[in-house]
Amino acid sequence: ELERTFVMVKPDGVQRGLVGEIISRFERRGLKIAAMKMLVVSDELAKQHYAEHASKPFFPGLVGFIKSGPVVAMVVEGKNVVPLVRSMLGATNPANSNPGTIRGDFALDTGRNVIHASDSPESAKREISLYFNTSEIATYSRID
Ligand code: CMP
């Protein structure tokens, strides 16, 4: 069953030159990049993306950070991709992100944590539609 998730290398990850490393990890795992773009997130898009956190004390900082420089947004596909990619990211809290995960290898701060990925198939659908038109998402021919 084909599944998709939304992944974004955050401004700190782009600025630190981690885009290639991160894409490599997904490719080596056998996942497919179905869409990808670099952009600077607008204020409106940032607030829509993080709408579920609007009431949190860290919301203004989160929105300010995500707009602070270019990001790389991707649609990644593969079997069980939502939980699989979350496991490859590691925990949001750096105290709990294991070595071998992207955050466990590259992040030390809850806010500046290099990468975002959808936490459920419903979130994935919503987040993909915020960043991509259907015409921007490629279809791979496949034998599986
Ligand atoms: P992300 O996976 O992009 O989704 C929500 C983000 O909120 C999360 O990564 C963190 O970067 C951020 N976040 C969560 N908790 C806190 C916090 N206590 N302080 C600052 N940022 C937070």
From TrEMBL:
Its main location: cytoplasm. It comes from the Archaea. Residues 2-139 form the Nucleoside diphosphate kinase-like domain. Its EC number is 2.7.4.6. GO terms for biological process: CTP biosynthetic process; GTP biosynthetic process; UTP biosynthetic process. The active site is at H116 (pros-phosphohistidine intermediate). It is found in: Cytoplasm. ATP binds at K10, F58, R86, T92, R103, N113. Keywords: ATP-binding, Cytoplasm, Kinase, Magnesium, Metal-binding, Nucleotide metabolism, Nucleotide-binding, Phosphoprotein, Transferase. SUPFAM superfamilies: Nucleoside diphosphate kinase, NDK (SSF54919). Its cofactor is Mg(2+). One of its GO terms (molecular function) is ATP binding. The keyword Metal-binding applies. One of its GO terms (cellular component) is cytoplasm. It catalyses: a ribonucleoside 5'-diphosphate + ATP = a ribonucleoside 5'-triphosphate + ADP; a 2'-deoxyribonucleoside 5'-diphosphate + ATP = a 2'-deoxyribonucleoside 5'-triphosphate + ADP. Major role in the synthesis of nucleoside triphosphates other than ATP. The ATP gamma phosphate is transferred to the NDP beta phosphate via a ping-pong mechanism, using a phosphorylated active-site intermediate. Belongs to the NDK family. NCBIfam families: PRK00668.1. This is Nucleoside diphosphate kinase. It comes from Methanooceanicella nereidis. The lineage of its organism: Archaea, Methanobacteriati, Methanobacteriota, Stenosarchaea group, Methanomicrobia.
